[in-house]
């Protein structure tokens, strides 16, 4: 199915690939330190998932994106079905039914994978649509449904953080493509109305607590605010140069909550200091910039939007997660892609990078189909 | 597509700004506030455990231990570290006599509060209980054994009235000394209080690494963050008291209420300071319980009162040394002058009785002291007046505390000024007359009487009594050593004092002396009896409360005085009959003790 072209290899995005490899290595080193005292379980699992992810990355980069565009609706439908499946047969962890157990070998979180399919289906929608700029509310009914279906399904698990990330990613794409001012206002009113309704009728107390604690973390230093305070103590105490690998007291003595997953960045900041954490932030910045650069060189709207969407996915994950651990955003349970331990989010990130690499490789090809479809 | 390129440029700018915000916040937390957070992180994982310093010991003059410390073991449970709460309770309840339900409740409530504080299971367990728990520690995670120092009294309640007791520190004491911690035990009375600053040690601490759940981390993580400070035990206080003599004195008092003071007449060292009834200091070791405390406070026999230093009594005839010295020295009398005692003394319209209704006939100073004739003293008191008398009372130390260092009362040395100030009334002649025989307003402590006796015996030096001989730090460094302090010199000529001393020998040794019961075979005792009226007239009442206080004060040997012994028996009746034999007996015991010590030293 895939035909190799020398130009493909020549145009392979070595820079992004090497960034990804470097990033994976740093992530594993960090998880090694974070999980050392508890037997390295998550380190070993993440090692496995990064391996799987890199294989997926290379595989996807060699599939012509035009083929993917062709099958976008099937990909989307498949992940939506997974989301429905998980509501009935999912494994419940910490109050959320978000995981599918695959033969007890691994658990997969469809809500992570669905981010990719939402990016694809929105890219495809705008690719097909040539009519209006900016778009009015009526023009947007279709993409709104594409977005709303997975968001509602994820909210039903319930997984507030992931639903919000999907909204942020897809919202960025819609706004990027242009929306009429009045439509923005209308959508904002609807969103505010829904938020008001949810606050009073559907949000669970623990979710309300999280929002309240965000506004004033000191109000609840032992429970919800504890996470935020301990994370900031860890980061701050790292100082300029950090305490060194496996030498962060906040990490090793488990003062940092969820230090292998949502708060992995705190571990890095404690043990490697300002220098280490700023380096990792710069790496993310470069990855996103490189994706945006690829987006700006794209030959069609689909590839441009896919690159933009994947860049948005990375951006929002970094902003929401790092913002959370440094205490400027609420504690929402959004992982830091590749950096936080988690098979599905790592795989999703790798697939996203794979898509961008694939598009980059083909930016010089005049007619993709003729070359790649065997 | 150019349109999108422009938008992408804008997106890049927004992206840059967002990363700038994240980076600035990291700069703020890690570089600007780094040191502050470093401190928080240390506080997070370092638990400071106080190492209480043991209090210094209290020893008798020969180094015998009167108050020491023993190690006590308290059992606590750290709720978060317990693996199986029911199992823990089930295995510890029978051996520690725990109330299973209550323990479960305590642990549950600590868990609910997310408290890292250990829950107390049992205090001061015995050796068997300790061995049982030690043997099973590995199967009982979360159980910790805390080591404490508790006071111990090898001699029981002997000397309790001056040793004092300890108790939980009060708010005021806490504010005064920053080294004392909440819930610490400090001296509340007696030596324990008076020498608190010497006895108290300097607490140390150890630091331990704990994880987020408050559990102690056993591995070697973060040991470099820890500091320790050794505790410094308090200094040992060696008293002047001879515990053997103290024991004899307390046994002599027996079930009576009263006090006995034995002092070294040449140094002012207190050799025994007995007060009965007393209390058991062991009741106070772990902080006294409310019931025992209220029993002690409400006890009509006042066991918490140190009668030797705080008990105020009319001295009766033991006081006659004061008018004797005063009248001799001021030239109102000489040993040749006789006074006729018909059994009463008339002054103006008032009639003052002698204790001997039939009268003593012709008496001079010597026979008046020997027979304790009241009329003689009424007469000389009226002659010299209250101003002269009160001058000598003060010279003998009455009306002010001796500054022994433990709880003390000053008593009353009456004078015109005092009465004016106290009652806003003029002084009457009759009041001078009764003051001369230690009645009326005069009130004294047995210790004051003893110091007066010592001053007579040592030819006029009023010494400052002392109860502490030496203080030395736990590693043997001497911090204080007693040397005699003369408070004042009594203004009296030697030959006049000799007359009084000779009369005191007569009290014990002359036929007809009131203190013959104190006489010893091979040792000359000098002394003076006293029978102090509690209620006027009704001295022979059947009701014990109305009976006279029996006094006897003495020194020995008369030729080369060494010790003064003062005995007071509350409502004991006649001093000569009740108090004098006790004093004689104690002098005898003292002599034997000294001989034994000498023999031991020679061996």
Describe this structure in words.
By secondary structure, chain A is mainly alpha-helical. Helix content of chain A is 70%, strand content 3%. Chain A has one domain. Chain A has a three-stranded antiparallel beta sheet with strand order 1-2-3, with helices on one face. The longest helix of chain A is centred in the C-terminal third of the chain and has 33 residues. The radius of gyration of chain A is 21 Å and the shape is globular. The C terminus of chain A is likely disordered. Chain B is an alpha+beta fold and 603 residues long. Chain B folds into three domains: 31 residues; 139 residues, Penicillin-binding protein 2a (Domain 2); 328 residues, Beta-lactamase (3-Layer(aba) Sandwich), CATH 3.40.710. In chain B, strand 2 and strand 3 form a beta hairpin. Chain B is elongated and about 140 Å long. The mean pLDDT of chain B is 91.
- State the domain count of chain B: 3
How far apart are the termini of chain B?
118 Å
* CATH architectural grouping of the largest domain in chain B: 3-Layer(aba) Sandwich
Q: How can the largest sheet of chain B be summarized?
A: 7 strands, mixed
State the end-to-end distance of chain A: 5 Å
Q: Which chains make the largest contact?
A: A-B, 43 and 42 residues
**Describe the biggest sheet of chain A?**
3 strands, antiparallel
Distinct helical segment count of chain B: 20
Order of helix and strand elements from N to C terminus of chain A: HHHHEEEHHHHHHHHHHH
**CATH class value of the largest domain in chain B:** Alpha Beta
CATH superfamily of the largest domain in chain B: DD-peptidase/beta-lactamase superfamily
What would the principal axes of the Cα set say about the shape of chain B? elongated
| CATH T-level topology of the largest domain in chain B | Beta-lactamase
Considering DSSP H and I runs of 4 or more, what fraction of the residues of chain B is helical? 25-40%
Radius of gyration of chain A, in angstroms, nearest whole number: 21 Å
State the helix count of chain A: 15
Give the percentage of residues in beta strands of chain A.
under 5%
């Amino acid at each position: 199915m895939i035909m190799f072209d020398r130009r493909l290899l020549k145009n392979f995005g070595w820079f992004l690939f090497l960034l990804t490899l470097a990033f994976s290595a740093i992530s594993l080193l960090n998880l090694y330190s974070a999980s050392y005292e508890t037997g390295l379980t998550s380190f070993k699992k993440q090692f496995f998932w990064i391996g799987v992810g890199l294989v997926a990355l290379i595989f996807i980069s060699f599939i012509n994106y035009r083929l993917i565009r062709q099958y976008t609706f099937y990909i989307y439908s498949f992940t939506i079905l997974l989301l429905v499946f998980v509501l009935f047969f999912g494994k419940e962890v910490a109050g959320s039914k978000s995981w599918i157990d695959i033969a007890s070998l691994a658990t997969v979180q469809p809500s992570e994978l669905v981010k990719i399919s939402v990016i694809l289906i929105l890219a495809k929608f705008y690719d097909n649509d040539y009519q209006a700029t900016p778009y009015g509310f009526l023009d947007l009914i279709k993409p709104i449904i594409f977005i709303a279906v997975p968001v509602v399904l994820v909210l039903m698990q319930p997984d507030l953080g992931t639903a919000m990330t999907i909204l942020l990613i897809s919202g960025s794409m819609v706004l990027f493509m242009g929306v009429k001012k009045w439509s923005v206002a209308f959508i904002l009113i609807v969103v505010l109305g829904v938020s008001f309704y949810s606050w009073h009728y559907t949000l669970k107390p623990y979710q309300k607590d999280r929002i309240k604690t965000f506004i004033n973390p000191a109000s609840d230093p032992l429970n919800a605010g504890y996470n935020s305070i301990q994370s900031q103590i860890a980061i701050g105490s790292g100082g300029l140069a950090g305490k060194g690998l496996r030498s962060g007291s906040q990490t090793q003595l488990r003062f940092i909550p969820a230090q292998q997953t949502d708060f992995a960045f705190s571990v890095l900041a404690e043990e490697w200091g300002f220098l280490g954490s700023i380096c990792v932030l710069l790496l993310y910045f470069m990855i996103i910039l490189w994706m945006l650069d690829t987006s700006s060189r794209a030959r069609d709207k689909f590839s441009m939007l896919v690159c933009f969407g994947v860049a948005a996915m990375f951006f929002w994950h970094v902003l929401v997660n790092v913002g959370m651990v440094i205490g400027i955003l609420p504690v929402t349970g959004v992982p830091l892609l590749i950096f936080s331990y988690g098979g599905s989010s790592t795989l999703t990130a790798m697939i996203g990078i794979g898509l961008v690499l694939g598009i980059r490789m083909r930016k010089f090809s005049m007619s993709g189909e003729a070359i790649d479809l065997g | 597509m150019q349109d999108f390129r422009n938008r992408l440029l804008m997106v890049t700018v927004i992206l840059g700004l967002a990363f700038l915000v994240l980076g600035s916040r990291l700069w703020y937390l890690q570089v600007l506030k780094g040191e502050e957070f470093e401190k928080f992180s240390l506080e997070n994982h370092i638990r400071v455990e106080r190492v209480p310093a043991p209090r210094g010991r209290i020893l008798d003059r020969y180094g015998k231990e009167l108050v020491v410390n023993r190690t006590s073991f308290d059992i606590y449970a750290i709720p978060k570290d317990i693996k199986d709460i029911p199992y823990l309770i089930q295995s510890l309840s029978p051996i520690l006599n725990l109330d299973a339900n209550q323990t479960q409740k305590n642990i549950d409530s600590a868990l609910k509060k997310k408290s890292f504080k250990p829950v107390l299971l049992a205090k001061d367990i015995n050796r068997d209980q300790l061995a049982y728990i030690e043997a099973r520690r590995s199967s009982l995670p979360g159980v910790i054994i805390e080591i404490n120092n508790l006071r111990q009294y090898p001699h029981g309640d002997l000397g309790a009235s001056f040793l004092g007791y300890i108790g939980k520190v009060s708010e005021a004491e806490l504010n005064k000394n920053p080294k004392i911690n909440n819930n610490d035990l400090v001296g509340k009375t007696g030596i324990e209080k008076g020498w608190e600053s010497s006895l108290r040690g300097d607490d140390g601490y150890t630091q331990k690494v704990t994880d987020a759940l408050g559990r102690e981390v056993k591995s070697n993580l973060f040991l470099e963050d820890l500091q320790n400070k050794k505790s410094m035990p308090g200094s040992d206080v060696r008293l002047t008291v001879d515990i053997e003599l103290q024991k004899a004195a307390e046994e002599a008092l027996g079930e009576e209420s009263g006090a006995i003071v034995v002092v070294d007449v040449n140094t002012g060292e207190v050799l025994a300071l007995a007060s009965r009834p007393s209390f058991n200091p062991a009741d106070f070791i772990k902080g006294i319980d409310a019931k025992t405390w209220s029993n002690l406070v409400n006890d009509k026999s006042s066991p918490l009162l140190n009668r030797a230093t705080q008990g105020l009594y009319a001295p009766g005839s033991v006081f006659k040394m004061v008018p004797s010295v005063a009248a001799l020295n001021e030239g109102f009398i000489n040993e040749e002058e006789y006074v006729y005692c018909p059994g009463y003394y008339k002054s103006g319209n008032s009639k003052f009785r002698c204790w001997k209704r039939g009268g003593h006939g012709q008496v001079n100073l010597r026979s008046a002291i020997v027979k304790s004739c009241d009329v003689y003293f009424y007469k000389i008191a009226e002659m010299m007046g209250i101003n002269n008398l009160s001058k000598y009372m003060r010279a003998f130390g009455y009306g002010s505390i001796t500054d022994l260092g433990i709880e003390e009362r000053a008593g009353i040395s009456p004078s015109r000024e005092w009465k004016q100030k106290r009652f806003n009334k003029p002084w009457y002649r009759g009041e001078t007359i009764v003051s001369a025989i230690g009645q009326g307003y005069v009130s004294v402590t047995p210790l004051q009487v003893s110091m007066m006796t010592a001053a007579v015996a040592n030819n006029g030096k009023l010494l400052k009594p002392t109860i502490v001989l030496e203080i030395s730090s736990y590693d043997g460094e001497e911090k204080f050593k007693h040397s005699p302090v003369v408070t004042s010199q009594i203004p009296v000529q030697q030959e006049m004092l000799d007359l009084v001393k000779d009369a005191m020998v007569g009290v014990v040794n002359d036929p007809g002396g009131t203190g013959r019961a104190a006489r010893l075979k091979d040792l000359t005792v000098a002394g003076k009896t006293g029978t102090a009226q509690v209620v006027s007239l009704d001295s022979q009442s059947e009701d014990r409360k109305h009976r006279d206080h029996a006094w006897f004060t003495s020194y020995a040997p008369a030729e080369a005085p060494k010790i003064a012994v003062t005995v007071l028996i509350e409502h004991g009746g006649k001093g000569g009959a009740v108090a004098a034999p006790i004093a004689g007996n104690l002098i005898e015991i003292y002599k034997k003790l000294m001989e034994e010590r000498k023999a031991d030293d020679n061996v």
